[in-house]
Amino acid sequence: MASAGPDLGNDVWRKSSYSNGSGGLCLEVADGLTGIVPVRDSKTAPHGPAIVVPANAWARFVAAVRHGDLTT
């Protein structure tokens, strides 16, 4: 049986500094959770889904974004 995942209802979410300022491409993350980083689309928050990424994978992703290693 699959786990429902962590309860994210009381977490403090913040909009990513890389989000689009016009409201179209907005990503939110919840900080301060051990070993995981929940991520959600702010257009569907707070009732929309969130994905939970291992903290080390999120750190590698953010580093790649900062260094311009990702292309669209």
The description of the largest β-sheet is: 4 strands, antiparallel
What is the CA-atom radius of gyration, in angstroms?
13 Å
- How many helical elements? 1
Topology order in helix (H) and strand (E) letters:
EEEEH
Oligomer: single chain
Helix content: 10-25%
Strand tally: 4
Number of domains: 1
SSE topology sketch:
Elements lengths: L12 E3 L11 E4 L5 E6 L8 E5 H12 L6
Describe the structure.
With 72 residues, the chain is of the alpha+beta class. The protein contains 1 helix and 4 strands; from the N terminus they run ββββα. It has a 4-stranded antiparallel β-sheet. It is globular. The model has no long low-confidence stretch (mean pLDDT 81).
Structural features:
alpha+beta, four-stranded antiparallel sheet, globular, 72 residues, 1 helix
Condensed summary:
This protein has one helix at 55-66; strands at residues 13-15, 27-30, 36-41, 50-54.
